[in-house]
Design brief:
Blueprint (H helix, E strand, L loop, with lengths): L4 H19 L18 H15 L9 E2 L2 E2 L1 H13 L7 H4 L4 E3 L9 E5 L5 E8 L2 E6 L3 E6 L3 H6 E6 L3
Antiparallel strand pairs: 1-2, 3-8, 4-5, 4-8, 5-6, 6-7
């Protein structure tokens, strides 16, 4: 068989395609989720959030941190949703603030995300538990439980979002 430019071109095209397909990343990262994750009761959600608080309480705040050596607010929220609900949220506060459905503060339920504007350019995120309480990674006290009725948080409140998980 005589090699023609067309045959050579097709061979190289096939080899290139196979190589590129083999080197590509999957389109999305699928995390194995509990098939009943969308059916978590409010009581179970609260219980899971308190478990996360117990496990992480006192871990210091560290901007960009993602471990028990130090964690920032959005990483703590992301880690909580992965650990307790098997659901992957975006990593940053700005990304999380666009995720889910915005809800009225009066509609808060366990597991809702709550956002604060703590300065002109700085935003903060936590997870609502119950009775005006939320868990978060505080810059001054690390992972803790706080009240949205506290004057600081009340004045800084920006928005609440519900995530379907």
């Amino acid at each position: 068989m005589m090699k023609t430019p067309t045959n050579t071109y097709l061979l190289w095209l096939c080899l290139l395609s196979v190589t590129l397909i083999g080197c590509s990343n999957p389109v999305s990262k699928n995390i194995k989720r509990d098939t009943n994750s969308t059916l978590h009761s409010k009581t179970n959600t609260k219980h899971l959030l308190y478990q996360q608080l117990t496990e992480w309480q006192g871990v210091p705040y560290k901007l960009g941190g993602t471990s028990k050596k130090g964690i920032d607010c959005s990483a703590f929220v992301q880690k909580t949703f992965i650990d307790r609900f098997g659901f992957l949220l975006p990593r940053t506060t700005a990304q999380q603030a666009q995720f889910g459905t915005e809800i009225n503060k009066r509609e808060l339920q366990a597991g809702d995300l709550i956002f604060f504007k703590t300065s002109y350019k700085t935003h903060h995120v936590g997870i609502y538990v119950e009775n005006d309480q939320f868990i978060h990674a505080s810059t001054s006290n690390g992972v803790m439980l706080s009240s949205i009725t506290n004057r600081y948080w009340k004045n800084a409140f920006w928005q609440a979002r519900r995530v379907s998980y």
